[in-house]
Every structure is written in structure tokens, then in C-alpha cells.
Amino acid sequence: MKVGDRTSFALMAMPDSMFPEKIKVGDNSIIGYNTTILAHEYLITEYRLGEVHIGDEVMIGANSTILPGVHIGNGAIVSAATLVHKDVPAGAFAGGNPMRIIYTKEEMDSRRLLDDD
């Protein structure tokens, strides 16, 4: 597994123990408590294997599950208890089960500007 500088894994975070080489986490990211990062999964009729890329300055909330083949862009935020079954664009805020994009990067930037005023 490749982990960038200043990245933190909270207690009980569980990266895939069978294929850790397929997981890459960037710099200055936080993986929340009890989060599972899977690079493989067994299904009834298929076996899936895929690389997981988590970018720089990403925040993954507690109790989330990241499925194989997912890419999470730089600066993204994933809320707690999210099932990440598809890619998260850079700077987006995502959450839910199944996951959906709650705010795009542009919407997040706009909200931050309002907060600064």
C-alpha cells in the first residue's frame, strides 16, 4: 500500500489485507474510524478486483466502505457511513448509502465564499 506524507488512519480503519498493493492514498488525507477500503470483493456470480486511489487532502468520514476500483479526487470529502461505490470528483462532497454527490467542487467553493463573508 502506498500512503502519502501526513496522512492519518483512525482506529480500526481496515485497508484490504489481501491486496494492499492496489491501494494508494495521497498526502495530508484522513481515513476515518472503522473505515474499510476494499480492493477486491467476492460476489455470487463474479469476483471483482480494482485499484483504489484516494487523492491528496481527502477526508473520509467514520464507518465508510470504499469498494474496489474507486477513485476519490483531491480535496474531496466523504461523509460518515458512506458506501463509496463509484468515483468521487476532486473537491466534491459526497455521502449516503449508496453514495451520491451532495455538492460539486464549484458548489463547495461557493458555500465557502458565503461563509467567509
Q: Which secondary structure elements does this structure contain, and how are they paired or packed?
A:
Elements: E1 2-3, E2 8-9, E3 14-15, E4 23-25, E5 30-31, E6 36-37, E7 40-42, E8 47-49, E9 52-54, E10 59-60, E11 65-66, E12 71-72, E13 77-78, E14 83-84, E15 93-96, E16 99-103, H1 105-116
Parallel strand pairs: 1-4, 2-5, 3-6, 4-9, 5-10, 6-11, 9-12, 10-13, 11-14, 13-15
Antiparallel strand pairs: 7-8, 15-16
Write out key terms for the chains shown.
117 residues, mainly beta
Give structural notes.
The chain is mainly beta and 117 residues long. The chain has 1 helix and 16 strands. It has one helix at 105-116, and strands spanning 2-3, 8-9, 14-15, 23-25, 30-31, 36-37, 40-42, 47-49, 52-54, 59-60, 65-66, 71-72, 77-78, 83-84, 93-96, 99-103. It is globular, with a radius of gyration of 14 Å.
Strand order of the largest sheet: 2-5-10-13-15-16
Number of strands: 16
Please bin the fraction of helical residues: 10-25%
Largest sheet: number of strands, sense, barrel closure: 6 strands, mixed
Whole-number mean pLDDT: 95
Instruction: Specify Rg, calculated over alpha carbons.
Output: 14 Å
Tell me the structural class.
Answer: mainly beta
Task: Give helix and strand order, one letter per element, not per position.
Answer: EEEEEEEEEEEEEEEEH
| Count of helical stretches | 1
What global shape is seen? Answer: globular
Strand content: 35-45%
Which stretches are low in confidence, meaning pLDDT under 50 for 5 or more residues running? none
Head-to-tail CA distance between termini: 42 Å
